[in-house]
Each structure stands twice: as structure tokens, then as C-alpha cells.
Amino acid sequence: MKLKQIALAALMATASAASAEVKIALDSAPELENSGTYNWVQGFKGVLEDAGMDVREMPRDSVGNEAEKFDQLSTGLLELSLSDVRAIAQVDPFIYGLRLPYIFDDSAHMQRALAEGKIFDRVNEAVAGQDVMLLAIVPIGPSSGIITTDAAVRTPEDMADLRMRALDDAQIAMYKAWGTTGTIVPWGEVPAGLQTGVIDGYLNSPFIPIAFGQTDFVKNFSDSRTIIPIRAVIVSKMWYDGLSEDQRQVVNDGVAAGNAAAQAWLDKVSSAALTALEDKGVTVQRLTDEERGAFRKLSQQVYDSGLMPSEDVKVWTDLSSATR
């Protein structure tokens, strides 16, 4: 009798996972013109809906902060989230290789490295105990530049007196290598920090000040092209494993469609991103290759800082070289 009850419970869980709507926790406003991740969602969503699956978009922050979203994914209460890469890195820091400065030339280079290196297989083996899966890495927008309220930055020396918002210890190390100071500030506190002078700027895609309505107080963007700004597509393993074989294939096809949609958008808007900032009154510093090289050279210190095991750094640098 007990075995029958267990089998019935498992069957009900599988049926529930397969039939319930797919809730997607968004990370940005639902604006196709300004968000790489929302373009990804639309590509993914279209495939699922064409296959008869119900999909519901959950507005940014409506299901909680990053930690709360991860908990809901782990327990099967949420099916998919566009999350900070730190959510994965807290379990497997290897993924932080994606944030090594100047590791990739562009988003297409990053995707080649992820595929050739079988990074998703490696990461998902490491995070399986948390009942989550990493399905995709999605570019938020064109390569990150230096965003500031007042200072115009063309050289590392121009940043000497600035305090920059950092995502993590790796960015603090990068800012230190550049000769400036970094401090970790949650994204929700960044606008107030910029307006009160607690921080002078941050590193991100040129679309971010536009998408988040910051162009009234962000006045400079330096096109340093330091890091590919990304989000992690994380799903509930309980949900994914509960799908039928055909439904899992639909989800996998949806991931491919989402990746293609995000890349197509990025290819279209990359050349226009800086002009869009200028149209909003932001001064853009278009760095030469030589000027950008000064930041690249100093950034090499991050690779040797000990923040990542040297063997992990080598995996990423070898992958980068092999897929360039």
C-alpha cells in the first residue's frame, strides 16, 4: 500500500508539473526595444505557447528578490527565472568566469565558448542538489561600459577619485586594478546611491540607464566594452524533470529560440545603443582601441587575484582562445 501511495504521489507531481502554467520571473520591464532578456522571453514563450503550454510573465520583483526567487525555483513554486549569475555562483563559483573582464570579444563569442566547453553540463551537475538547472545565459544588452554621473572617463586615471558600484568581489578587484574604489551595492539602491553621491557610477550595458529611467542623473558613458552583461535562465529541476519527453523537447527548442531572438536583437541594436544614450542627453566617450587597451591590460590582474582557482581561470581562458 505504501509503495502505491508513493507511486501515486509521484504520478500526481509529474502531472501537475506538466499541466500547470509556466511562470517566468522577469528581470526587466517588458520592453522589446531595450531588453535582451525580454527578447529572449518572447522567443522562448512563443515556442511553448505554439505547443499548447500556458505561459505567464511575472513582473520584475513581483515574486521576490534574488534569494526568494531561487528558493521558489528549488521548491517548484516557480518554473523559470531570469536571475543574477550570483544565484548559480553561490553554489558553483566556476560560473564567475563569465565575468572575467575582457574574457570575450562579444556575446556570440561567449555563446560559442559555453557550447564548446559544455559549461551547462558542468554547472548543472554541480547545482543538481539545489533542485535547479541552468538552461541559458542571456545578454542584457551590448557590452558593458563605464556609466557615471559626472566624470568623463577615457583612461583609468580618470577614475582615481571615483567610488563605483560593484556586483561582487571580482568587480571590486577589477576597480582596484584600475586604480579606483568599488563597493557592493544592491541594484535597487543604485539610483539613490547615484543621486546622493554614495557612488559615482557603475558598469553595465548602454541600454540600462535608458531602461531604468536613469538618464536624468547619469550623464556619461565610456564605451570600455569590459564585460558581457548577462542574466542566468534558471529553471526548477522538479518542474523540468516532471515534463514528458516531448514537453522537455519543446522547452529545449524554446531555449534555442530565445537565444536566437536575443542575439538577433543584439545584432540589430548594438550600433544604435550609443546614439540612443546621446539622444537622452548622455555624453558618450567612444574609446579608441589603444584607450580600451589600457583598461584591458590592468584588468589582467583580476585573473591572477586568487578570487577564482587558477585551474578554473585556465579553463575559461583556454575556452576563450579556442573559440575566438
UniProtKB/TrEMBL annotation:
Keywords of the record: Periplasm, Signal, Transport
Highest taxon listed in the record's lineage: Bacteria
Subcellular location: Periplasm
UniProt GO cellular component terms: periplasmic space
GO biological process terms, semicolon-separated: transmembrane transport
Signal peptide: 1-20
A Pfam family annotated for this UniProt entry: DctP
InterPro entries attached to this UniProt entry: DctP_fam, TRAP_DctP_sf
CDD domains to which the protein is assigned, alphabetical: PBP2_TRAP_Siap_TeaA_like (cd13603)
Annotated PANTHER family: C4-DICARBOXYLATE-BINDING PROTEIN DCTB, PTHR33376
Family: Belongs to the bacterial solute-binding protein 7 family.
Identification of the protein by name: C4-dicarboxylate ABC transporter substrate-binding protein
Origin species: Pseudooceanicola pacificus
